[in-house]
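Need a sequence for this fold. Nothing fancy.
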């Protein structure tokens, strides 16, 4: 018989498994941190170098391993955490698949030092590409130190796909923060080389969040608490006014394990509905505890996707507990609770302790507060408070051309559509004065027809091109601030920000990183004082996180944001001279038709259209 199937050797199987388990350095970090927690450590320290490519070291004071276990742990399916088949339906540890160390050992050079309390000395094991290189006794404190060196040294294809160090560092920080948030009772340290990024003292969750994200968070947190026999909900939401454009702090933990769940996120979003603008995302640190038998963690190797047996019920409990939290803190409008259906569900009997929340609300709270700046209006003269800027050389050149747009149309410039009956009195003066309509549009006449210009977008285009030209020629004007402003960032965002500093300065900001997590802003691009800088920087950081290739793109994000903030608002009254200048400036830009992000600036009512309308 000629059989074709054979069983893969473990070393090969491990390397294949490694593709799933250790997709990047951060994934190895997560596994090592979780092993330390499973070992009962209360002090865990992570040191990494070069985005984890050259070194990831995790040191713990946990229970350690025996001499034999120190070798066995690198074998496939080697685990101390489950024994019987049914155990996987009742997981109380982080790990259980027994494949992390085997996978890591297959694709890296690993050194393990470990000692159990009861042993007089530790043992030191070296493994390279699944091969045991050496094992000897060593002296050390009880606990385990595991170092992964040269990750993917024997998998060039994967090494090639790693992003730059900066990106991998960012992922490592994210992983670390998730684990540290899930375990506020443990002491954690994280160092990038010699640089201490986090040093977290044991405490409660609030303390951990504040230590990690900054003192300002203390006032932003609203506790969420609900205890039912299906699930216990705990943790915090951020007050609605701290919702962000970008999905910043959004954390779910199920049985103290960070999980991703678009489904549960929807429950939180819906609880915030009506309290924050649609495009903003609420912040939350929510802990869900269910019986280990009611959650399946084994649906994905990374264990961040889980399945709850009562997913729909959990959805509703979560939704109502978030609403209740918002209500309790007088920040929810009362009507929000009228359509709360969470309590109509069949399980409500069992949840008798879950009472309809009594609601107080703050009648003055307006989630859209910042949006509703009253339109400025003034007297005569410069009514808008808006001052046209000097034209640049390029604009001046363009300006010569745009004048032709105003020329009186001749017969020829009308598409008569073959309708010979139509004649036009030649002597009409077409340059009628421009006027403003609804304090939003400027109506004017051009060769092409009657043109309606959106004043905000028109000015945005103008400002954008000026900022762009200044940045390109390194001549951005800076306006010094009377009081320097300080912006606080998470360590991960701070890393991004530091990288973006050259772009930020190029745009005319006088800014610099300060301490370990802040940026101090001493000067801003001239004319940009009404801009929400915190938001601009947030968006830039986010753009950088999701699109790492092109620095120019961040400048672009920034330029558009700044321009939007600096541009004349709708609702501002303008006098004739101002309108004329704005139009002249607009038609001196490279593209008066659309904004930098492609939205129309003007609409034209052509004579052809009118003829059609009037059936001429
Ligand atoms: P799993 O965590 O799924 O059991 P791993 O490959 O991550 O599988 O680890 C294999 C085994 O090695 C664990 O079950 C545990 O017994 C042991 N181990 C790993 N890391 C440590 C550590 N830091 N301290 C003590 N024991 C550890
Ligand atoms: Mg493990």
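Here you go.
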């Amino acid at each position: 018989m000629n059989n074709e199937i054979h069983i893969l050797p473990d070393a090969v199987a491990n390397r294949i498994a490694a593709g799933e388990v250790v997709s990047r350095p951060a994934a190895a970090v997560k596994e090592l941190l979780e092993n330390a927690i499973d070992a009962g450590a209360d002090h865990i320290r992570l040191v990494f170098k070069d985005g984890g490519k050259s070194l990831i070291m995790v040191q713990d004071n946990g229970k350690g391993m025996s001499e034999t276990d120190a070798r066995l742990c690198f074998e496939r399916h080697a685990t101390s955490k489950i024994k019987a088949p049914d155990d996987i339906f009742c997981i109380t540890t982080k790990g259980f698949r027994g494949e992390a160390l085997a996978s890591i050992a297959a694709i890296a050079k690993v050194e393990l030092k470990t000692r159990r309390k009861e042993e007089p000395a530790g043992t030191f094991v070296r493994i390279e590409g699944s091969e045991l290189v050496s094992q000897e006794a060593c002296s050390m404190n009880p606990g385990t130190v595991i170092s992964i060196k040269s990750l993917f040294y024997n998998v060039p294809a994967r090494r090639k796909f790693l992003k730059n160090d900066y990106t991998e560092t960012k992922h490592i920080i994210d992983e670390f923060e998730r684990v540290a948030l899930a375990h506020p009772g443990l002491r954690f340290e994280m160092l990038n080389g010699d640089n201490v990024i986090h040093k977290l003292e044991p405490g409660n969750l609030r303390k951990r969040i504040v230590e990690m994200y900054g003192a300002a968070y203390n006032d932003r947190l609203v506790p969420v608490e609900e205890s039912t026999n299906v699930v216990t909900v705990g943790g915090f939401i951020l007050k609605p006014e701290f919702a962000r454009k970008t999905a910043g702090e959004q954390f779910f933990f199920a049985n103290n394990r960070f999980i991703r769940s678009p489904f549960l996120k929807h429950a939180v979003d819906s609880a915030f509905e009506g309290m924050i603008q649609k495009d903003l995302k609420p912040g939350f640190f929510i802990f869900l505890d269910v019986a280990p038998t009611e959650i399946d963690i084994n649906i994905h190797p990374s264990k961040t996707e889980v399945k709850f047996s009562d997913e729909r019920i959990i959805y509703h409990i979560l939704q109502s507990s978030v609403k209740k939290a918002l209500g309790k803190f007088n920040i929810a409008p009362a009507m929000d609770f009228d359509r709360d259906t969470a309590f109509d569900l069949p399980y409500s009997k069992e949840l008798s302790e879950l009472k309809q929340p009594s609601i107080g609300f703050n009648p003055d709270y307006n989630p859209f507060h910042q949006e509703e700046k009253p339109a400025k209006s003034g007297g005569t003269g410069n009514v808008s408070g808006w001052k046209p800027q000097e034209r640049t050389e390029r604009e001046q050149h363009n300006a010569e051309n745009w004048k032709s747009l105003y020329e009186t149309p001749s017969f020829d410039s009308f598409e008569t559509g073959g309708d010979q009956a139509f004649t036009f009195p030649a002597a009409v003066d077409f340059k009628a004065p421009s006027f403003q309509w609804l304090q939003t549009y400027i109506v004017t006449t051009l060769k092409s027809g009657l043109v309606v210009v959106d004043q905000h977008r028109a000015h945005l285009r103008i400002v954008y091109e000026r900022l762009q030209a200044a940045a390109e020629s390194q001549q951005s004007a800076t306006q010094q601030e009377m009081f320097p402003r300080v912006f606080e960032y998470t360590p991960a965002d701070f890393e991004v920000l530091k990288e973006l500093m050259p772009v930020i300065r190029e745009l005319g900001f006088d800014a610099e990183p300060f301490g370990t997590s802040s940026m101090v802003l001493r000067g801003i691009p001239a004319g940009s004082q009404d801009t929400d800088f915190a938001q601009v920087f947030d968006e830039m950081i986010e753009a950088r996180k999701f699109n790492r290739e092109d620095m120019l793109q961040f400048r672009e994000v920034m330029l558009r944001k700044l321009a939007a903030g600096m541009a004349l608002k709708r609702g501002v009254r303008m006098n004739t001279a101002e309108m004329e200048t704005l139009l002249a400036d607009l038609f001196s830009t490279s593209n008066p038709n659309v904004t930098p992000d492609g939205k129309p600036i003007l609409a034209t009512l052509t004579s052809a259209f009118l003829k059609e309308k009037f059936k001429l």
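For context: The CA atoms of residues 392 and 466 lie 8 Å apart.
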